[in-house]
Amino acid sequence: MGYDIERFVGYVNEGLLCSICRGVLEDPLQAPCEHAFCSICIHGWLVHHSNCPEDRQIVDVSLLRPLYRYMKNDLNRLQLHCKNRESGCQMVCSLESIDRHEKECEYSLIPCFNVGCTVQVERRNLDGHLAVCEYRSHECPNGCGYFILSAEDIQHNCVAELRTELELLRTEMICRVEETKHEMESRLDSQRRHMVQKESVLLNQIEELKSQISRLMSDVCSLMAAERQHRQELEQAELEKREL
Questions:
Q1: How confident is the model at residue 159 (pLDDT cuts 50, 70, 90)?
Q2: Beta 109-111 vs 120-122: how paired, if at all?
Q3: Largest CA distance in the chain
Q4: CATH 3.30.40.10 domain locations along the chain
Q5: CATH of domain 5-97
Q6: What global pTM score does this model have?
C-alpha cells in the first residue's frame, strides 16, 4: 500500500500515485506500458489478473521494472509529515529519509524491554516506564548476585538459588571433565596407532637392511675366493716361468 497523500506537503504529481491504491508510490515498480504501482499492490493484482489495471495491456511479473530514475528522484524529494504527527511529532522530511526518521522518532511506540511486559510506550517515555514497570528486575539486596523481578521477591530464596547454581556448575564441570577425558583418550589411541604403524615400517626397513647386508657379505666372500684363485694362478705361472 502507498503512502497516504494527506501526509504530503504541497502538490503531488499524478504520475507519482499508485494506479491501484491511489496512494503515493511505495517501493514502486513500472509496467512496460509505463504505469507505476506500489510493489505490494501490483504483485497482489497479478495474482488474480494478467493485465495492467489502467489500460488492460498484458503484464507479467517478469516484465516489471524499477521506476525511471527521474521519477524516482521526484518521488524521493517529496516532503511529508511523520506518521506520529497526531502524537505530537512536528517533523517534515523528504520521502527518501522518512523511514530513517520514523525508526528514531521520539513519538514512535516501542515495546518495553522487560521480559513478560507487553506494554508499548513512546520512545521518549520509555525510561519513565522502565523505572516503574512491574516486570523490571533488580539485584538481590541480600548479596547473592541474582537479578529478580519485583513480583518474585517473596518467592526468592538466596540459599536455594545458590545451591541450584552450584549443582549446575558441578554438572557442567563433570561434563567438561568427561569431554576432556574422551578427547585425551582419542588422541592417545590415534598416537598409539601411529606408533604401531611406524614400528611396522621400521621393522620392515630393518629386515630389508639385513637382507642387503647378507647379499653384500656373500659378494665379499665371492670376491675373496676369486682373489685367492687369481693369486694361485699367478704363483703357478711364476713357477713355470722359473723352470723354463
A1: low
A2: antiparallel
A3: 146
A4: 5-97
A5: 3.30.40.10
A6: 0.53
